[in-house]
Please model this.
Amino acid sequence: MREITAAVLENKRIAENIYALVFLTEEEIPVRCGQFCMIGVRGYPLKRPLAVCKAEGTRITVCYQIRGGGTKTLAESCKAGEKISVLMPLGNGFTLRPEERRIAVVGGGAGVFPLIAALREFQGQKQLFAYMGFKNKDSVCLYYEMQRGEKLVLCTDDGSRGVKGTSVQAFLSDIGAVKPDAVLACGPLPMLRALKSGTKGLDIPVYVSLEERMGCGVGACLVCVCNKKDGTHARVCRDGPVFRLDEIEV
Amino acid sequence: MADLRVNICGVELKNPIIPASGTFGFGREFDEIYDISCLGAVATKGLTLKPRAGNPTPRIAESRGVILNAVGLQNPGVEHFIEHDLAWLRAKTKVIANVAGATLSDYEAICARLDGLVDFIELNISCPNVKCGGMAFGIRPQDVKEVTHVSKRALRKTPLIVKLSPNVESIAMNAQAAEAGGADCISLINTLTGLAVDIERRRPVLANNTGGVSGAGIKPIAVRMVYEASRAVGIPVIGMGGITCAEDALEFMMAGAAAVQVGTQNFTDALACAKIAEGLGAWCDAHGVERVSELTGTLKMNREGA
Model:
């Protein structure tokens, strides 16, 4: 966990409302898949929590969707050569047990970015089956990165590219054939809820990466909590962002 | 190198920089980023007698130059703190235990429990985010005096800081009320109550509706209140509200603060407190100031001004 100043290599639009920010760190900072960075945006007191999509030595790529003023400012005003303030690496990341060999990877929208990191990290070690959903053909991005597994089912809500429907629908219709030992997932809350009800009683561990508005990003301020089944709160930034879906309320 | 030590109620801090309650936990997470023993003290996350779950999320929102928070005093309870964090934190630096309660007897009990175990107790009588989180005691001067008196009665060893709310009629009167109740020191300002609206949903951004406003945008209000409060009392004042750099800290000290707390800036820059402490030394050296404590209360107002 380090607070660093990083140099921006590029910050470009890769799909509708989606940008890829690439920066260089002075020294290599090991990042596991599912971990994230807090990225400073000029003029905003809060850093933005963004999942690491690719970690290649000192070269880190985060992808983000424009959601509000902060991400809009980041997209419009952060240029190559600029210095940015970054706190990283944060959170627990995705962990798979040795016996979990056949892995379904289910993503929706901006949720595909940490899963791309997972596909990159587990490629060659696990059998990966990816189900990635987007709004429409214009929002599809990083297609080549999603093809690292045995299989990729690309879905769009309007059917303008790939299969019409959601990634959860595609995954659930395939579940009997794929027989996954575990599922990695990230996406909007309705998607996680559909995944939860669809996998209920199947005894397949589902590891989800959650999104929440954050303050410190390190576990000190208790802003980004989620509710656990046992009635306690967990810190999304520190205890997560990856949780077992059956242990949290979504 | 300038002498950055400050003495507050007989306790010596190695410098006047203190991370503010609620932004720094009990220091453990930030200590993974830098060695927090470089700080004058740490003000802990607000503690209550029993653990508290806090408010629903979202608990944080942002507006231009400021943030709003409504965490709702989530904390593991004072016993958990004593057992798990206190010894570790005290080995690092001075400890200001921030405490809150719903009743006068809560305040009395938590003060009695922590007496002699920490370097200071800071009464949170001004948390705007919970119905019984002390705000009821932080508004009217007679209530400030009473909660201070009851808390002070429980303390034999540890000096008492009363943290004042800015959401009041007269900060000077409330500062005097704390002093009259037996406070050894006051700290201010806590957050200003605010509201952020999600215009698409036509709903508040925060689950709690309102939240406490903090960050760079509130600094001039805080500096003014620190000036007014410090003129009204004879006890030391700890200033806070929107400090982002050493220069900001100096404004508070000149306005009357013996030490300062830094909150929101810890989110903008995790190294903020360490950098501000360093910057304070550099400023003093560049300006021929031998002891930073000399600067407290040196602000001279314009004669023609209000």
Q: What stands out?
A: Chain B touches chain A through 37 residues (CB under 8 Å). The longest strand of chain B covers residues 94-99. Chain B has one domain: 6-54+72-191+214-295. Chain B has a mean pLDDT of 95.
